[in-house]
Amino acid sequence: MIDGHAKSGDTATARQFFDRVPAEIESVATWTAMVDGYVRNGELDTARELFEAMPRRNFFVWSCMTSGYFKEGNVKEAEAIFDRIPVRNLVNWNSLISGYAQNGCCEEALDAFRKMQVEGLDPDGVSFASALSACAQLASEKWEKARKMRVVLWNKGFEKTPGYSSLSPSNIPEGQ
C-alpha cells in the first residue's frame, strides 16, 4: 500500500499507511518504500529526514537518495550521501556514475568508473552506458573547442591543405 500510493504521487496517504505499520512488522523495505516515494515525487527534504531516521539502510535506499540529489542537480549532496555508504555495490556505483554523467561532470563519472573497478566491481551495461555518455559529452566539448579554433584559424588566413593533415597559411602577406 505504501509503495503503490507513493508511486502514484500520493505521498500523504502513503505516509499515513507508513505511520500505522506496527513496530513488530516494520522492516527496511517499508522505510525504503516511503523514502523512495518521497524521492520520486521530488520531496527530497522529507525523504532525507526519513532516511536519516532509518534504523537500517539497504543498498537501494542509498542509491535512491544519491540519484535523487543528482536528479535535483545537487551534485555535492549526492556525493555526500555516496561517501557515507558503508559497503558499496554495483547499483550504488551506477547511481554515482550515471548521476555525474547526467549533470555534465564527465571527468568525475569516468574517475568513478575507474574507482569502481579498483574496488573489485565489474561494470555492467548501465556502467558502460553512463561512462560512454560521459565520453561522448567530453568529445562533444572538445569538438566544439576544435570547431571554434578552426574558425579562428580560417579568420587568420589558414586553411586545410588538400591531401595533408596540417593547416597552411594562404592569403597572408609575406613577412607576417
Notes on the structure:
The longest helix has 31 residues, at 125-155. The protein contains nine helices and two strands; from the N terminus they run H-H-H-H-H-H-H-H-H-E-E. It has a two-stranded antiparallel sheet. By secondary structure, it is mostly helical. Helices cover 67% and strands 3% of the residues. This is Pentatricopeptide repeat-containing protein. PPR repeats lie at residues 27-61, 89-123.
Layout of helices and strands:
Blueprint: H1 2-7, H2 11-19, H3 28-40, H4 44-53, H5 59-71, H6 75-84, H7 90-102, H8 106-118, H9 125-155, E1 158-160, E2 167-169
Antiparallel strand pairs: 1-2
Helix pairs in contact: 2-3, 3-4, 3-5, 4-5, 5-6, 5-7, 6-7, 7-8, 7-9, 8-9
In short:
The chain is mainly α. It has helices at 2-7, 11-19, 28-40, 44-53, 59-71, 75-84, 90-102, 106-118, 125-155, and strands at residues 158-160, 167-169.
The main pleated sheet reads as: 2 strands, antiparallel
Radius of gyration: 24 Å
Shape: elongated
Query: What's the N-to-C terminus distance?
Result: 78 Å
Category by helix and strand content: mainly alpha
Strand order of the largest sheet: 1-2
- Stretches where pLDDT is under 50 for at least 5 consecutive residues are 165-173
Keywords: Repeat
Organism: Escallonia herrerae
PPR repeats: 27-61, 89-123
Pfam family, one: PPR
Give descriptors for this structure.
about 180 residues; mainly alpha; two-stranded antiparallel ribbon; 9 helices; 2 strands; about 5% strand; elongated; RNA binding; PPR_rpt; PPR_At4g14850-like_plant; repeat
